[in-house]
Specification:
It is built from eight helices and five strands, in the order E-H-E-H-H-H-E-H-E-H-H-E-H. It is α/β, with parallel strands linked by helices and 187 residues long.
Length: 187
């Protein structure tokens, strides 16, 4: 299966993506994790991405698209994948469409995790305290939610019009959310 997992920061995408990808035996491709690794290693991509991430903004499409092209070209993604954190803009949808057309492949589903914004803020503040993540403070979290709403939420309209969108309530125990996702995927 080729799946996109969407939702605001703190909706549980990373947690659910790892579980779902494991259950479906497809790679979990997380743009956020790739950025964090590159920042920690101080690579050119990490240096370019860091300034945007620290401010709570999205990394520009040219940097992100190149990273996704490279990752989807790897052999383990040939039979399927779960994208977590990509696409985030209409232009990225078009870029992904072109990549899939080149590969003679199609998306099977886009799963959007839905959660109340105040729940997200509390989740991310708790995560920041546990993990010591400097990119998660109240101001940055609220900016990330605003950016998500303004730039990413409209993608759901595109995927809904294509008949690919499946919305899942992301509040509750991890196992319950996983079961909801697998149900909407027909698994």
């Amino acid at each position: 299966m080729r799946i996109i997992l969407m939702g605001p920061p703190g909706a549980g995408k990373g947690t659910q993506a790892a579980v779902i990808a494991g259950r479906l035996d497809i790679p979990h491709i997380s743009s956020g994790e790739i950025f964090r690794v590159n920042i920690a290693r101080n690579t050119p991509l990490g240096q370019a991405a860091r300034q945007y991430i620290v401010a709570g903004n999205y990394v520009p499409d040219d940097i992100t698209n190149g990273m996704i092209r490279e990752r989807l070209a790897q052999p383990d993604a040939a039979a399927g994948f779960l994208l977590d954190g990509y696409p985030r803009t209409i232009d990225q949808i078009h870029y992904l469409d072109a990549l899939l057309t080149e590969a003679v492949a199609m998306l099977d589903a886009v799963v959007e995790l839905t959660v109340d914004p105040e729940v997200v803020v509390q989740r991310l503040l708790a995560r920041a305290a546990l993990q010591g993540r400097s990119d998660d403070n109240d101001h940055v979290i609220r900016n990330r939610l605003l950016v998500y709403h303004n730039e990413t939420a409209p993608l759901t309209e595109v995927y809904s019009a294509r008949g690919l969108l499946r919305q899942v309530d992301a509040v509750g125990p991890v196992e319950d959310v996983t079961d909801r996702i697998l149900t909407v995927l027909g698994k």
